[in-house]
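Final report, Chapter 2: Outcomes

The project's central promise was a pipeline that accepts a single protein chain and returns its three-dimensional structure in a standardized token representation, suitable for archiving and comparison. That pipeline is now operational. To close this chapter, we reproduce one record exactly as it appears in the project archive, with the input sequence first and the structure output second.
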Amino acid sequence: MAAQVKSKQRVEEHGEVFTNEREVNDMLDMVKQETERIDSRFLEPACGDGNFLSEVLRRKLAVVGERYGRSQLEYERYMFVAVSSIYGVDIMADNVAECRERLYGIAEDEYEHRFKDECRAEVLDSIRYLLSKNIQCGDALTLTAADGDPIVFPEWSLAMGSKVRRRDFTFAALLNVSAEEPTFDMLDEIDQDEMGKIIPKPIREYPLTSFLEVAKYE
């Protein structure tokens, strides 16, 4: 079992205590149906090195394997969907790096175990790129990234065949920050439907591209 504390100093300075595996599974079992829905999005605002997110990914990939394991292309497409639905923020850069590598390792191991020598490097490159965008170093309380800019998350969705649509949103807009009285500087990030419900607007939209080529967006 992984340690729940890395150091006394980190606990004192950041309140960092990791949730153990049994508690993680007990909590996720409370939303078991969602953890096993491939495209259900999960965000952990203090993700640490990925205790919760890694278990969510394992559950999702188990469903991907069960449904699409007979077709490598279908497995690859829905593995992409599973990984793309997982988001995290942590204030500690080493935790972010460890979380990304941990999630990548889970996806890589499952993929290689299932398809061995037929694995495609571009699939794993896309998975790594997803994690570089979905797992952010920043402060979920102030909604700012480590560089001081607003945290921005991409929304990924399969559009047609192997094509993927990407839209970027600020974390603040996704949370409907200042939903009662939006500030002037948020007016380009939110909209309202006929019932007055605030809905986020993307700050950037990208052309459709193959899920194998998402790293070419930038």
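Archive annotation: The beta strands are 42-44, 86-90, 135-139, 144-145, 152-158, 163-170, 190-192, 198-200, 204-205, 209-210.
This record, like all others produced under the grant, will remain available to the consortium after the project formally closes.
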